[in-house]
Amino acid sequence: MQETTEENWAASVDTDSSRHDPLDRTALRDQRNFLVISAIGLVVLVVAPLVVSDFYVSLLTEILIFGLLVSGVNLLLGYTGLVSLGHAAFMGIGAYTTAIGTSLLDFPVWAMMICSVLASFLIAYGVGILSVRTKGVQFLLITLAFGEMFHAIAEKSRVTGGDDGMTNIPRIDLEFLGLDADHDRVFYFFVLACFVIAMAVLRRVVVSPFGRVLVGIRENEKRMLAVGYTAFPYKALAFAISATLGGLAGSLWVQHGFFVNPHLMTWQMSGEALLMVIIGGSQAFFGPLLGAAFYVLTKDFLSDLTEAYLLFFGLLFVLVVAFFHGGLAGFAATLARRMRRGSAKQEGDQ
Fold this sequence. Notes:
It is a single chain. The chain is mostly helical. Helix content is 79%, strand content 1%. It has one domain (43-309): ABC transporter involved in vitamin B12 uptake, BtuC, CATH 1.10.3470. The chain contains 12 helices and 2 strands, in the order αααααβαααβαααα.
């Protein structure tokens, strides 16, 4: 009798494991693919500044900084289904917090970077509590209104230099490591370290139960309400987390250019961030980084050819949206699947 019970238990375990095995194997395969892509990307980002000129090191730094901003935007757009036109304001909040604290109050840069992140999070959480109660176009417009409000404050404030902005903003002191961040390559690797840490934290957020709830809200908010999840606090926290990445990007931006002005907080900058996400692919974790790279490099290339570069960039954007479903990341994933199917078919024929 005991042997029969043990056999039945073993059979039930085998049945359960076979039932869940496809999902487990899919999750393991996705995790493996993510780690492989991350490793390859990290190697490229580490090696690239060692073989290119100083000018392209500066462009790579811009790509990583914009990658932080648009990864935050993607947490809203790609994972939560919210479209914001005011996220550049939080990049500006981070930038001005660092600029005021270092150049006017003489605080250490590292301390003001932390303050920039915290200020962006707290202000965005307050804005989010008011904004996420709306949906669709209403949410877009209210975020636009908040963004323009912060832009107006920066533009009219004498403390921030008004429309002229602020200059002579120092970079972080890395002498304790024997490094001088005033050298562009050293500062690039500092930005890369910040980017890697931020992406690791963001990855934990999107694969956590919190991240899965955000995806559920994006797909069907009413169904999430029906199973007991209140969407409001999740969306407000997602809004704050996304703005935190923008605040970090702003703090790094002023150190990169030693300068900040209110243009950083305009709705046009928020629109460009949305373009980067769409071009790169909002359904892919690293899609925003691809979009940022495409935007920065293409804009630099076209601006050298003609003053009407925005016209041609607009045409490129239309082509990407029309023919690259899922953005550049979606196109790359589709191409990889076709290659795997082709190789599998060839092996089957043999």
